[in-house]
């Protein structure tokens, strides 16, 4: 009867060793460098993407190698990742916030791994009704200078203003945000799924684009019911189109680049800026659609 014989990994030829390392999962690679201080010298240059799931109880990291091999690691292993992988990118950062939310540990991770951008930032509450203060996320936004898509599922009285242009921002609960807060979102595409804004506020958002809007390409804003609107706001087309020069247009079709939405409309209102940029306003009973044409 033959028994398996263990082969010391350090005695393998380097081309074979390189191939072995690239087929190992991230957890095994982290454990390997713990065996000896010189272990990192054997590792080839490898890359990985990281998703961070951060909460007050059990935060963790999901690491995916270039070969598609994945491991879930405790958040404390982030310092080992920079020794294993030469190139690391932050794919998704999901933050679950609560009254006990503290971001010091998360900031240490972002700074140590030198993350300055991520593809997706998701912020959600641990329970419904929790309101997140802007200050709680200020330092995180300062570290992550570029965020491709942001999904905000927590109520916020104010949005962080120090974010570079995002491709898309989704605000699931915008009931505490006023029209000027929506104007501060510097993104190509914005979806606000719930709000206390009516046609008066929507009119001000459109006028802000007319005056100096640079990046906005698409806005989908769920308008408030009359009973929950902010004071001095109103519903009605006369308020939406107030003091705007427009032309009525027929049916059309608009596709978003990042949110994955396609809007087919039967009628709209075309407006044009002094620089020649054109946009179309479409109003349904409960939603404003604002589309800027390329």
TrEMBL record:
Query: Which segments constitute the F-box domain?
Result: 6-57
Instruction: Report the superkingdom from the record.
Output: Eukaryota
Checking InterPro entries in the record gives: F-box_dom (IPR001810)
UniProt-listed PROSITE patterns: FBOX
Task: Name it.
Answer: F-box domain-containing protein
Q: Whose protein is this, by species? A: Caenorhabditis remanei
